[in-house]
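User: Some background: our group keeps a shared notebook of sequences we're curious about, and every so often someone picks one and asks for a predicted structure to add to the entry. Today it's my turn. The entry only has the sequence so far, pasted here. Could you supply the structure so I can complete it?
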Amino acid sequence: MKQLIVITALALAVTAPARSQALVDPNKVAPEYREAAEKRRAEQMRQRECALKADLEKVLPRDRTVYLNHCLDTMAAKQ
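Assistant: Of course. Here's the predicted structure to add to the notebook entry:
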């Protein structure tokens, strides 16, 4: 039993923490893909803004997807 605990603790210590997806940097992409990278970055910024709004409004996890979809649809309609 002690071996299992030690192995589990070692495995958890060695693994890297999960991180969110990094923002796309259009300047680090080949020129032919730059336009697509700019669009992807704009979409990521909209998603992050909606996620921040959800956090500030303390949206429950069960309601978060609906909230985010509504927020993204609202932002798309404004453009």
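Suggested note for the entry: Residues 5 and 32 are 51 Å apart (CA to CA). The chain is about 70% helix and 0% strand.
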